[in-house]
## 1
Amino acid sequence: MPDLKYKRVLLKLSGEALAGPSGFGIDPPEVESIANRLKEVHTTGVQMAVVLGAGNLWRGKQGLDRGMDRATADYMGMLGTVMNSLSLMDALERTGVYTRVMSAIEMRAVAEPYIRRRAIRHMEKGRLVIFGAGTGNPYFSTDTAAALRAAEIEAELVIKATKVDGVYDSDPKKNPNAKMFNQMSYIEVLNRRLEVMDSTAISLCMENHLPILVLNLWDSTALLRALRGEAVGTLVSG
């Protein structure tokens, strides 16, 4: 990997990334497209882990609005992330990428229990690891799970995959004059209340000096260029 800047990274994907045009459910062609993109990275030798959301299957807010218990709603979301993880694992293995799903909630029939040292060993052996079930605790988002797992496995970078080029000062879809930031500090993101990741995740990255790169995964060259250290997306760091 002589031309790559990072050896180990964690990619945070929203559940909606696996959905089709409707924004709901799991769309096999979309999952296969993402798997092919990740295979391109994996073949470079970069050690990669992935954390998925579950917004394509379940939005806890809908349950909360009807009086559902918060913990129950969050556990349902965690189970949704495992479903998404299994779908991505299947698509990756069909491309020839050895993959392991590790779940923070024990379900041995479908996923390995999350053990930090085992996860690191999988990556050292060239396997792509998908972390499912968030942190295993209610009241924590998958953004926070991504920051936590990245710190635990000693990742050098958290990549937040979106469908826009980076972080803007306003919605670029609504404001054609929206300004994109090339680089920001953690404090600036928190003070501006920008929706990069939730405040708990940003704070966790800040405390562990873990940079966050926000980029457009659907730009076919963005991910590889970012791993080479080229100026892509928005880098949030100290």
## 2
Amino acid sequence: MKNFAYICLLIPLLLCTTGLTFTSASESGPSANGDFHFTLEDGVDRSVEFNARTQRDGNTTGEMTFSDPVGIPNSGSDSATSGLYVKASFDCLLIKGNKAVMSGVVTQSNVGDFIDHRVLLVVEDSGGGVNETNHDKLTWGVYQLPNRTWTPQDSEVPGDQGALLDWIATDFERDDDVGIPARRSEIIGCQTFSLSSYSLVDVQHGQGNIQVKP
């Protein structure tokens, strides 16, 4: 249970499309936003609110707030917190069709170990609005950065530093090949996982609406 709370908290949700939306004609750039109140199989009311937008300079701004009254194990002890509150600041946004992936850093939480950890939010816009029967979808998670205490080396090459070098492997015969970096960033971000890898489950009730605007 400690590892569940400390290393990765992943709560998949499927949200009904009824409720508030956020738009601004004066703003430009891809964006995603939503505001929800919902319950899972346990019947407990939860809420999540988020907004993200890519600015003209390419930077992403936005934030997410999640509130869950159900206690979770505290990673530093065997006790449980009195509910869960997480607020995160987004620094990336990736939109493909009606789906959006947002990522950033936890800035506030009643679980101290979550602060400064990475958070992912994935949403799907069903295209509906208030009182629509189509369902929007959402899933999110909090991730601890890996703590690397060793560097891989060739035992037959004293002082081998090959694992610390940077290069990009590309297909020589394809000019459009963007290549694969030798050292991929371990920071959780919008492109860490493919959209097809996220799992979504039904919720019992919901109020809210997702808007994804490429």
## 3
Amino acid sequence: MTAVVAPSANIEEQVELGAGTAVWDQVHVRGPATIGAGCIVGEKTYIGPGVRIGDRVKINALVYICTGVTVDDGVMISAGTIFTNDRHPRATTPDLRALRGSGPDEHTRSTRVREGATVGAASVIGCDLEIGRFAMVGMGSVVTRSVPDFHLVVGAPAATVGCVCRCGQPLLRVTGGTLPDRDDLTCAACGLRYTTLGGAVRESDPPS
């Protein structure tokens, strides 16, 4: 199965599209970049050079994914999400006489979104951090530090308010940003079981 690309999309040279991937209207993908199999890239999304996207990733409309970002398999990136890659951005050199280049340089920082994670609509993702496996970032959040596996974070800056199952359903809600130690968490929706210890969430019976 070949990729499906809308006529208005701009897919530059050295872009690899996996089988069954759909790229919709007015998407711009800069080369080199890799988008895996079975993905959806929504309208007016921008994907920068050097970006690597895994299989079965869903990217909604109006998403900005810049150089330095890696997205693992099964990730959901909701509409209007913005990634960043420079902690101290400037348009020009210090004397204001020349524009800084737009390509990657010593200031470029990386970000990784691990498998199964969800990034909520209109979120802003800082750089030099990681969003963990099956973590969930609530809509409108500003992520300034790494998010552990299975954690639910919201706010600006984003902070832990609970943890979630692989299926996305909340397992536990907390205040104060700290998960209590538990060995009896069971998802009411799908029955998967989890434990928490020292803030880390572990799967008791991960799907094979």
